[in-house]
Amino acid sequence: MNRAWFVLWALVILQIAAWTFAPEDTPPQIPEVNRGKAFGDNEDIHVGSRVGLRQDAFKSLEQPWGSRCVGEERKQFISGLNHYYYHRQNQTERYPESFGKAGADYIAKQWATTDDRRIERLTQEAYTRGYLKPADFEPVARKLVVAVIKDERVTGKGCAG
Question: Quick check: is 26 in a domain?
Answer without folding.
Answer: no
